[in-house]
Amino acid sequence: MKSANVGLSPRTDDHRRVLPRVVDVLSRAQSILCAIQQEPDGDAVGSTLGLALALEERGKAVTLLCSTGVPENLRFLPGLERLVQRLPDDAAFDATVVCDAGASHRIGPGLPPPERRGVTLNLDHHLTSDDFGDVNYVDADAASVGVLVFRLLRAMGHPLSPKVATALYTSVLTDTGSFRYSSTNPEALEVAASLVQAGADPWTVSSAVYEQQPVARLKLLREVLGTLYLSTDGTFAALSLTRSMLGESGDPSLADGFVNYARSIRGVEVAALFTEPAPGRPAEWSVSLRSRGRVNVAQVAQRFGGGGHHNAAGARLAGPLASARDQVARAVREELGRTTADEGRPDDGR
């Protein structure tokens, strides 16, 4: 089942017109691959798992793939026990769905070649999504991709089971920062309410995600906080995570959310966490960026080939840590200067 056979066209700015095409592809498909990006967060895992479980409830043959596995604090979610990290060499599907990736390179290795993926669906809410799918259902105003999946299941007329609701609630909860971030719009709250009505338990989810931390995470936090860098003007803060800090676990997901400690400093507009690459990976520092709101860090990340949202983005930079940090600090300073200049311009009435 190829995109040419179902009359699909590239992404349009009107995501409402794309949704029926997504419904049509998934209704026709019998074998579906749901692929989760490398080193995923709660939105990527929750939205993908929620969709996969719902499709299985509709009688579809679903394969759930993530080449790196998922963070420990998300492994409570029902259905993840059947996740695979590698596919058979001859695996083929009618459709392949990728949620929240933002860019095709973040999916990682392991996808079948294009001729065996069927129709590729890209469900995303990143401002910088690179439209790698045959169909791109992208809405940057959605609080999480879990919201997009909720819309999709509603359009399919599929009732929410408690397991699906729990996965999607995890998506919404984590990507809105427990409903604290600016992405927390009325739709996000309405969707969350519907998911709770369908059986998601807010305490169970929040406790598993935020209050079941391994001791190793707190010990790692102690080391990472010791690397704190603050710019002279106090508007940019950075932390760094090296492989030696990770020790035997080698699990960078333990540091998920650490960047927010740097952003919480009074006066900081942008914070960054620099993570050293694993052995055998390209010699590039992975940088996670978080903004307090004035600076669009997606634009900062794009300077280095990355992308993301206004307040949360990421990129990779080669070279020594000090050089990578200086480059990002300079870009943040320039972006902040541009923002300050724009704020000072008189309103011309447009």
What does this 3D model show about the protein?
α1 (15-28) crosses α3, α2 packs parallel to α3 (145-155) and α4 (162-175) packs across α6. The longest helix is centred in the last third of the chain and has 24 residues, at 321-344. Residues 1-13 and 345-350 have low confidence and may be disordered. The protein has helices at 15-28, 42-57, 145-155, 162-175, 186-197, 202-210, 215-225, 243-246, 259-263, 297-302, 321-344; strands at 31-36, 61-66, 95-99, 119-124, 135-138, 229-230, 236-241, 270-275, 284-291, 307-308, 312-318. It is α/β, with parallel strands linked by helices. The protein has a six-stranded mixed beta sheet with strand order 6-7-8-9-11-10. Strands 2-1-3-4-5 form a five-stranded parallel beta sheet. β1 (31-36), α2 (42-57) and β2 form a beta-alpha-beta unit. It contains eleven helices and eleven strands. The chain folds into two domains: 3-210, Alpha-Beta Complex (inorganic pyrophosphatase (n-terminal core)), CATH 3.90.1640; 215-343, Roll (Diaminopimelate Epimerase, Chain A, domain 1).
Shape: globular
Unreliable residue runs: 1-13, 345-350
Overall pLDDT: 89
- Count of individual domains: 2
Radius of gyration: 20 Å
Q: Main beta sheet: strand number and arrangement?
A: 6 strands, mixed
Helix content estimate: 25-40%
CATH architecture type of the largest domain: Alpha-Beta Complex
